[in-house]
Specification:
Length: about 230
């Protein structure tokens, strides 16, 4: 397999990009950046800021035929925004305070009907630097249509990665310690879990705190494996 660059945006965005999604037309992308949410023309790289969170925007995805996006931020909020409206001062159509702490990662289902977000602050819970318990559910799933909460799950913080299976039956999350959990959204039950220390480093020899963890996850198209 050979990869070929089709185009490169000629005008750099003014700040770091933490999330990215491409609209159905294939000509427009949306970027969650450190200073807001941007619409980007893929042909020439022209961009404009179309909204802001109260802190870094950490994730973004289109949810309605390219006319609406949902974004997540380090303010712990999910924002719905109509991108057909022009101008930078575009207030969100809906805002849901999903978390008290940061939204580390966000994912939408393949049918764009669900949005999942994960949170959690790593604080030492003891002299061995074991993580303190979370102060809120660290994995949440909402309906994109009305913003209502569908499921909330507890997982040791910080939970930094989330994915929804192609059939929207399962949500998977990964944390700073290399834990992976998969829940059945129809029943709310834990379907699978495992851990590997290959994804993180910890301890006096390695480091005196947790470093690393799982930063991104994706189901394969058949839903049988997690990348």
């Amino acid at each position: 397999m050979k990869l070929k660059v089709n185009n490169t945006a000629k005008r750099n965005l003014p700040s770091g990009v933490l999330g990215w999604d491409v609209a159905p037309d294939g000509n427009t992308a949306f970027a969650a950046a450190m200073d807001g949410v941007y619409r980007v023309a893929l042909g020439d790289g022209e961009h404009e800021r179309i909204g802001q969170h109260r802190s870094y925007a950490s994730g973004v995805a289109w949810i309605s035929e390219g006319n609406e996006i949902v974004s997540a931020g380090y303010d712990g909020a999910l924002q719905w925004r109509n991108v057909a409206m022009e101008g930078a001062a575009n207030p969100p159509r809906r805002e849901v305070q999903a978390h008290k702490f940061w939204s580390w990662d966000m994912a939408v289902s393949s049918d764009r009907g669900l949005v999942a977000t994960v949170t959690g602050q790593y604080l030492a819970g003891g002299y061995k630097y074991e993580p303190a318990a979370a102060t809120e559910p660290t994995v949440k799933v909402f309906r994109t249509g009305d913003g209502d909460l569908v499921r909330a799950f507890d997982m040791t913080p910080s939970v930094q990665a989330v994915a929804i299976s192609p059939d929207a039956r399962f949500v998977a999350a990964g944390n700073l310690m290399g834990d992976v959990r998969v829940w059945d959204l129809s029943t709310g039950e834990l379907a699978a879990q495992w851990n590997t220390d290959a994804f993180t480093s910890w301890g006096i020899i390695k480091s005196h705190c947790y470093i690393g963890g799982i930063f991104a996850m994706q189901f394969t198209p058949d839903g049988e494996h997690l990348l």
